[in-house]
Amino acid sequence: MKKRIKSIILLFLVLIQITALGSPVDQDKSKGQIEYKVLYLTFDDGPSEYTGKLLDVLAKYHMKATFFMLDAEMKRNPDMVKRIVAEGHAVGVHGVTHEKSTFYCGTLGPLKEMDKANATLEQITGSKTNLARTPYGSSPYLTKKQAEALAAREYVIWDWNIDSKDWCYRNPYKTFRATTQMIQKSQKEPKVILFHDIKHVVETMTLFLEWMQEHQYTSKPITTDITPVKLKQKIN
């Protein structure tokens, strides 16, 4: 009789423990694991005197981005180029002149500018990139022959499908509101956002990354296994 009572008590204690711990499924539910939506943050025209602050904000929120950099700015800020790479962000080339009349001059104009910027990147970091973004986007200025020359050198051209228009607003709050509104309306995937490495964007990013966390977004660097986003093409 005593053995039976002990057995019942032991079984009762085990049941209490199981109930307290819960099943593996219940435990997963209790953790409230969130499936985050992905955005691709891109910054053009740097690195600049503001890049360090941008990187600080990105690090604070554990976000990654892609920086499309100009030749002269890389030469001016080599430590920032190294830091971008060291902190796990992607890098791409944005050319040299950023002048339409020069960059898009001749069949090999864009290729020569990307190669020169890439050589500078390799000199600073020890490696090149095949990610590239042409000034003002690949449409309507990039011709078919120019695009073919870039592709033959294995450059992958990336545009964007969400333009923050930071270059136009020059105001962190207007840029923030416009960008979040476009994201909420857009049905396109992947969502690639155009920002510029300029002063007020540092404050924009503080607002924007907080908003991303609140709305269950994360960000990732662009990689070669993603189909590139292109502007609506008007190839000549």
Automatic annotation (TrEMBL):
<keyword id="KW-0732">Signal</keyword>
<protein>
    <submittedName>
        <fullName>Polysaccharide deacetylase</fullName>
    </submittedName>
</protein>
<dbReference type="Pfam" id="PF01522">
    <property type="entry name" value="Polysacc_deac_1"/>
</dbReference>
<dbReference type="InterPro" id="IPR011330">
    <property type="entry name" value="Glyco_hydro/deAcase_b/a-brl"/>
</dbReference>
<dbReference type="InterPro" id="IPR002509">
    <property type="entry name" value="NODB_dom"/>
</dbReference>
<dbReference type="GO" id="GO:0005975">
    <property type="term" value="P:carbohydrate metabolic process"/>
</dbReference>
<feature type="domain" description="NodB homology">
    <location>
        <begin position="37"/>
        <end position="225"/>
    </location>
</feature>
<dbReference type="GO" id="GO:0016810">
    <property type="term" value="F:hydrolase activity, acting on carbon-nitrogen (but not peptide) bonds"/>
</dbReference>
<feature type="signal peptide">
    <location>
        <begin position="1"/>
        <end position="22"/>
    </location>
</feature>
<dbReference type="InterPro" id="IPR050248">
    <property type="entry name" value="Polysacc_deacetylase_ArnD"/>
</dbReference>
